[in-house]
Amino acid sequence: MGLLSRQIAPTPSWCTAGIALIVTMLVSFAPGAQAEDDAGKILKAMTDYVTSQKVISATFDTDIEVITDDLQKIQFASSGQMLLSRPDKARVSRMGGYANVEMVFDGKTLTMLGKNLNKYAQIDSAGSIDELVDHLRNKFGMAIPGADLMLSRSYDQLMSDVLDAKHIGRGVIDGIECDHLAFRDNDVDWQIWVEVGSTPIPRKYVITSKAVTGAPQYTLRIKDWKTDVPVAPDTFAFKPPAASQKVEISALANLDEVPQGVASGEKK
Question: Quick check: pTM over 0.70?
Answer without folding.
Answer: yes
